[in-house]
Write a structure and sequence with these properties.
Layout: H1 2-16, H2 21-51, H3 54-71, H4 79-99, H5 104-121, H6 134-155, H7 160-177, H8 179-184, H9 191-197
Amino acid sequence: MKEIIVNKIMTNIAKYNNYDDIKLKEIKYGIESIYLTITKTIIVIIISLFIQTTKELLLFMLFYGILRLTAFGLHAKKAWHCWIMTLILFTLIPYLIKTININLLVYNILFIICFILFILYAPADTEKRPLINKKKRIVYKVLTITISIIYYILSYCSNNTIHNTLLFACTMQTLMILPISYNLLGLKYDNYKSYRKKGGTI
């Protein structure tokens, strides 16, 4: 189904626009990402309705999504890898948000670890989207750290659901940018460096 829809859209784009092959590949990658995001979102929302975690899921998707915009992070090589990760994480985490109470000391320690790892590793790019502009990488890092600080402050002015959601959003995003996470999935890390070696500009 995905190939049919994506190919049909790409056929129309190529027909009415004079794009080169590189641009068309970029557009196709974007369309595939949008399609995958929409279908995954529909499925996890349906699951959340059955296990009664819809509110927690939507809050987690919101706060995690905001961090993802600046910290970026890995994308699975294969669609089925992505599906498995999404179904497990976006089903399990909302359930944990709803059911657990995190010790305050543990909560603070986890947030501090997230801050440090954001400083060290955010933003993290991918092979298909290398972050080749140095100034943009710095801006994204500052924004990611700023957002995480806002989350930490906000977490002390909120109920337990928001409190847990903000921590899990930061923790999840931290896992998405770690070199070890890339290695476990067989992905290349710091792809902008490879781009530079091949003759690209920063």
